[in-house]
Structure formats: structure tokens, C-alpha cells
Amino acid sequence: MLFFTSDLHLGHTEIVRMSGRPFSCVQEMDETLIRNWNDRVCKNDVVYILGDLIYKSECPPEEYLSRLRGKKYLIFGNHDLSWKDDVDLSKWFVGCQWGDRIDTGQGYALLSHFPLATYIRKYQIHGHLHNRTDQEYWSLLRAMPNSLNAGVDINGFVPVTLPELICNNEKFKQEH
User: Fold this and answer.
1) For a FRET experiment, which of 65, 135, 142, 144 has its CA 20 to 30 Å from that of 114?
2) What is the mean pLDDT of residues 43-70?
3) Rounded CA gap, 32 and 85, in Å?
4) How many Å apart are CA 164 and CA 108, to the nearest integer?
5) Are β-strands 108-112 and 99-103 bridged in parallel, bridged antiparallel, or unpaired?
6) Phi and psi dihedrals of 22, rounded to 5?
7) Cβ–Cβ under 8 Å, residues 55 and 29
8) Starting at the edge strand that comes first in sequence, how are the strands of the sheet with 147-149 ordered?
9) For all residues of the chain together, what is the average pLDDT?
10) pLDDT at 136 (0 to 100)
11) What are phi and psi of 134, to 5 degrees?
């Protein structure tokens, strides 16, 4: 199975408030995100993490990475710069890079942390936006059905399949 996720921000105390996440504290958020991940992802499943996996955490990255199932690929986000050099990435990830193009089985997808406003191919899967719609570029991205936000904030706080990603983005775009 192939999954996508982004912007977990494990360990980031302020993200609970900043993104209006339904958790009482960062520890509850971290444990829920890890449990949700492992409830869906099996050992041989592939998970593309489109950036900002961990940020400002007091825990070492290995404490999170050792608990997440699946064959993980990390597309670096702006907040991954704070921890990525502190661990042997090859121990935890099949691959790490700034972007990728993959065959999803339902068409090719460009993977990046940051959304690209001019990408018009089959799919563009990104993170970075969380659940924000107050940015200047929101009206443009909203009109792009192939632009899919993999952020946990609009995807039920779980890694999602491509069909789920499409459905969640359509719903979010209609509501906002």
C-alpha cells in the first residue's frame, strides 16, 4: 500500500495552537499521530512524508523514527533542517531528498514540501500549508484539482492513500 503524509511536526508544542489541532498537549498529539500511523501502515507499506516530520522536539528524532512502521521516504521540508543532520537518515528512510516524481499507479505525481503554483500535470502532492487558507496563493491552489495537500491537518491526522488524499482535498477545498 502507498501512503502520503506531511507536517506532523512531532514534538512541536506550538503547532497544537497554531493549527488548531484537537489535542490538549504535544504529548497527546505525538502519541495520537504515531498510533494513527501504525494503525494504518504495515511493515511493507510505503509512506512518503512530504516534509516537517519533527520540529522543536525535546526528544531525539530516533524516539519517533523507531516507532513509525513502513518503508519511509522523506521529502525534506523547511523544518526538517533542524534535525536531519543529527541522525543517520539511511537507517530510518529508504530515501531522502528535496523532491521526487513517482508513479502512483494512477498517474505520475510530483512530490515536494512546497506547493508549486504552475504545475499542471497529473498530480502535485505537497505539504507546508497545514489547514491555512489565508495566504495569497490559496485561491490559485484551490482552483487546481491536481494540487493535493498531504498535511495531517486536513487528512484526519493519518497517512492517506491517493484516493483518500483526493477526496479529503476536494472536501477541504469545497468547505473553504
Assistant:
1) 65
2) 97
3) 26
4) 16
5) antiparallel
6) -80, 50
7) no
8) 99-103, 108-112, 123-126, 147-149
9) 95
10) 83
11) -95, 5
